[in-house]
């Protein structure tokens, strides 16, 4: 049964001008006649906040009354982006707000642009969590997201002389209208010390305590009155620290002590797919997990007499291993604090937790030195040892006498410095473990988790990722959304499979004309954004070739650059050929400590400087790098792309979600047989995607047989010319050796990601892209077919699968 529409929200659309004026006067504190775009952003946000607040209270009241089963989604990262436009969309007030703002001579776009992104995440993993929150609210799944209220989110990227510069992201500096501080909700979180065993009962004599204070963010559902919660924890020094300062007068010491506690929630670690491995990071992980477990236990005990039925009412999901310590924490709370027998608690734990793995790369799997764990979380280490002992006893019954098997399975890596394997803790503590695309889930059970799968084959499953169509189509691409509305009706927002009906229109000349007009307008908008952020003029008539994602060797931005240089040299060699003009667009951040990734960013700029200023090239080729990639930049880029580069080495990209956003906005994919690219191919058809390169088994076979990159260099003249030009300083004349080391990672360093092996296939496939682009109607039909096939990649589908198969919940039960 849908929630009742509150009278105020029915009226607000007609009175929105008055409501904006009221908030300018009462909340923002400015004269409406003098309101700046920023003032208006705040005022409109408060109009929406008020509406959502009412819906939120109603949702919470209803769920509490029903003692609903809830999902608790634990994630170190939530890459939310901006909230205003999404909130207005959920309230169906976007049109009214735009109309209301005309009185102030402002557009909604310009006003909404004043809001800083909430960039509490690195990349795909954090954005997935944000899309999931949107879908959980929208499909009506009682849910809480839990994370950290980082004072500083993902660093802002600027480019100086082609090099990445990192600046802090003080996104909360001017406050945010979107958070609700919950002054009454605060939990102590303990660290350090030692464990005493008194009559066999463990007592954790901790050495430090910090308070976790709750700040809630609204997560509006669409097409429903449901609103879910993202609860973020801020670390605050316990009150007695201040008191001591007051008593002793040693303010400097007290302040530094206070900082020592509060720095836990200061800053997001800017690493994507490589663990930070620092003590502060471990404290962050435990801090937010402990607060979240205390919160869910308190909520349970408000609604139920004991914790015996916890597993029936809570499903706790681990977004990667970052919150894996939660398994030990729940055991500690149940056994140590609620005197539950171990075996009973362990059963509850297993029925409560589930875990998503996000990567196969061994170097990306999180482990913690036993010594560090002992120092920070001594009781948890004891619990982990006991879990491990019982698990290895069980494992031994599967393969008696096979000690190598047990050593591989152990929660403790005993080779070298002993380390706790967080993925193993997550698997042992969960009833379901999933990968994020069909290929990735299959590889999980064949490779890194094969021993676990031999014991528990049914524990492993697949949940292919998705993206929310509200943000990535309705909000980001109003042009295409309008065309879809007039062609299909508006139902696709909540039922993305309706896009299938577009297939019938793919060769319809009138529809093609409208579709291409939308794409062209989006490209004009993107070209303007490029000019604003880089100063480079690009032609919307060129093919917009887009690779936007974190900069990482496995994602192979460097392979893309090799193609750009190949094309540059080919145009110079043959200037009068019928070249399809191309604009190659990159965006993405490199982890601050990732030297090779930063060198790739610099190379993109150096190649761009040469190519873009070569008068012989003109509009035939342009290369641009849009700085500071994030959700809002992505929202501008996706709708304007013609070609989506998804070129990771087969077997390395767990899923990808950028690939989905781009195809949903009508880009054709050039990609490897990797991650969700494979499922995109299955859904749009082999003829509507450009797949190239080695497939996963071929990658494995080539590596087994002894890959020799130099052979490709010697036998491929175009490749040799490109690498020689880069290594020889043609693009860095002021410092000819700048890219020697980068090229040497390929030629002499083993070319770990097989760029040279895939080069020829990639370049040949790029020529096929040109051939198709020369036939606008054929290209357009394929672009339409791509949009039509993307229904399955809605995160609503993903969340329904999680609900049914992992969390055992029925969407819309309330
Ligand atoms: C979707 C998204 C990603 C993930 O991109 P991939 O191409 O899947 O790696 C990263 N960052 C932002 C800002 C995104 O919106």
Name the overall outline. Answer: globular
The largest sheet, given as strand count, sense and whether it forms a barrel, is: 9 strands, mixed
Mean pLDDT level: 96
CATH architecture of the largest domain: 3-Layer(aba) Sandwich
Number of domains: 2
Protein topology:
Blueprint: H1 7-12, H2 16-28, H3 37-65, E1 70-74, E2 78-81, H4 84-90, H5 94-102, H6 108-112, E3 118-120, H7 124-139, E4 143-148, E5 156-160, E6 163-167, E7 179-191, E8 194-198, E9 201-205, E10 208-220, E11 227-236, H8 239-248, H9 251-262, H10 279-303, H11 310-313, E12 314-319, H12 325-337, H13 342-352, E13 353-356, E14 367-369, H14 370-376, H15 378-398, H16 403-409, E15 412-413, E16 419-421, H17 422-428, E17 432-435, H18 438-446, H19 450-455, E18 460-462, H20 469-475, H21 478-488, H22 509-534, E19 543-548, H23 557-573, E20 582-587, H24 595-612, E21 621-626, H25 631-637, E22 643-646, H26 658-664, E23 668-671, H27 677-684, E24 690-691, H28 696-704, H29 709-715, H30 717-727, H31 740-747, H32 755-773, H33 776-788, H34 795-807
Parallel strand pairs: 1-4, 1-12, 4-11, 12-13, 13-17, 17-18, 19-20, 19-22, 20-21, 22-23, 23-24
Antiparallel strand pairs: 2-3, 5-6, 7-10, 8-9, 10-11, 14-16, 15-16
The structure holds pyridoxal-5'-phosphate (PLP).
């Amino acid at each position: 049964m849908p929630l009742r529409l509150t009278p105020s929200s029915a009226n607000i659309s007609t009175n929105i001008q008055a409501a904006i004026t009221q908030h300018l006067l009462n909340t923002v504190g400015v004269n409406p006649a003098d309101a700046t775009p920023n003032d208006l952003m705040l005022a409109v946000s408060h109009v929406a906040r008020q509406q959502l607040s009412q819906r939120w209270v109603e949702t919470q009241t209803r769920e509490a009354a029903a003692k609903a089963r809830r999902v608790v989604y634990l994630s170190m990262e939530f890459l939310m982006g901006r909230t205003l436009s999404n909130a207005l969309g959920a309230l169906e007030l976007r049109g009214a707000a735009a109309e209301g703002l005309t009185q102030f001579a402002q557009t909604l776009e310009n006003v909404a642009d004043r809001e800083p992104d909430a960039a509490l995440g690195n990349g795909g993993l954090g954005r997935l969590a944000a899309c999931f929150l949107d879908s959980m609210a929208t499909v009506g799944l009682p849910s809480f997201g839990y994370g950290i209220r980082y004072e500083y989110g993902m660093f802002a990227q600027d480019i100086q002389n082609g090099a990445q510069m990192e600046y802090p992201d003080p996104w909360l500096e001017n406050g945010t209208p979107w958070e609700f501080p919950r002054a009454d909700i605060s939990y102590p979180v303990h660290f350090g010390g030692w464990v005493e065993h008194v009559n066999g009962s463990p007592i954790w004599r901790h050495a430090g305590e910090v308070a976790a204070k709750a700040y809630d963010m609204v997560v509006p559902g669409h097409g429903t009155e449901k609103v879910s919660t993202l609860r973020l924890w801020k670390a605050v020094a316990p009150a007695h620290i201040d008191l001591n300062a007051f008593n002793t007068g040693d303010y400097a010491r007290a302040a530094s002590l206070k900082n020592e506690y509060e720095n836990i929630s200061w800053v997001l670690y800017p690493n994507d797919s490589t663990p930070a491995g620092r003590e502060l990071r471990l404290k962050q992980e435990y801090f937010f997990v402990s607060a979240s477990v205390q919160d869910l236990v308190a909520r349970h005990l408000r609604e139920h007499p004991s914790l015996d039925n916890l597993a029936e009412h809570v499903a706790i999901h681990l977004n990667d291993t970052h919150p894996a310590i939660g398994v030990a924490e729940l055991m500690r709370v149940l056994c140590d604090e609620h005197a539950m027998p171990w075996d009973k608690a362990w059963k509850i734990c297993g029925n409560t937790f589930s875990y998503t793995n996000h990567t196969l790369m061994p170097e990306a799997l999180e482990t913690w030195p036993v010594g560090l764990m002992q120092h920070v979380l001594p009781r948890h280490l004891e619990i982990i040892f006991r879990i491990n002992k019982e698990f290895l006893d069980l494992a031994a019954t599967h393969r008696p006498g096979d000690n190598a098997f047990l050593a591989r399975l152990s929660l403790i890596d005993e080779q070298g410095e002993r380390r706790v394997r967080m993925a193993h803790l997550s698997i042992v503590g969960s009833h379901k473990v999933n990968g994020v695309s069909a290929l990735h889930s299959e590889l999980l059970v064949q490779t890194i988790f094969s021993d676990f799968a031999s014991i528990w084959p049914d524990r492993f499953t697949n949940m292919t990722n998705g993206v929310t169509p509200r943000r990535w189509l309705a909000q980001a691409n109003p042009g295409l959304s309008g065309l879809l509305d007039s062609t299909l009706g508006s139902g696709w927002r909540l039922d993305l499979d309706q896009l299938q009906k577009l297939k019938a229109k793919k060769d319809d000349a009138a529809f093609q004309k409208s579709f291409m007009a939308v794409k062209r307008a989006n490209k004009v908008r993107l070209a303007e954004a490029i000019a604003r952020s880089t100063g480079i003029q690009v032609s919307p008539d060129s093919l917009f070739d887009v690779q936007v994602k974190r900069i990482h060797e496995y994602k192979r931005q460097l392979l893309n650059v090799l193609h750009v240089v190949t094309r540059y040299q080919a145009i110079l060699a043959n200037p009068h050929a019928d070249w399809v003009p191309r604009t190659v667009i990159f965006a993405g951040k490199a982890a601050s400590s990732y030297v090779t990734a930063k060198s790739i960013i610099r190379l993109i700029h150096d190649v761009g400087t040469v190519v873009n200023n070569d008068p012989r090239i003109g509009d035939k080729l342009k290369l641009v790098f849009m700085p500071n990639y994030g959700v809002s930049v992505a929202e501008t880029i996706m709708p304007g792309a013609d070609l989506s580069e998804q070129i990771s080495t087969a077997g390395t990209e767990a899923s990808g979600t950028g690939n989905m956003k781009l195809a949903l906005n009508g880009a054709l994919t050039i990609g490897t047989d990797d991650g969700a690219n494979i499922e995109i191919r299955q859904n749009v058809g082999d003829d509507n995607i450009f797949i190239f390169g080695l497939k996963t088994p071929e990658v494995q076979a080539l590596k087994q047989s002894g890959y020799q990159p130099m052979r490709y260099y010697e036998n491929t003249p175009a490749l040799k010319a490109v690498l020689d030009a880069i290594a020889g300083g043609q693009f860095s004349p002021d410092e000819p050796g700048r890219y020697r080391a980068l090229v040497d990672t390929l030629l002499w360093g083993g070319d770990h990601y097989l760029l040279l092996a895939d080069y020829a296939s990639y370049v040949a496939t790029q020529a096929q892209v040109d051939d198709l682009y020369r036939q606008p109607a054929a290209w357009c039909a394929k672009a339409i077919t791509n949009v039509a096939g993307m229904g399955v990649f809605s995160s609503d589908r993903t969340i329904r699968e999680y609900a049914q198969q992992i969390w055992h919940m029925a969407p819309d039960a309330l």
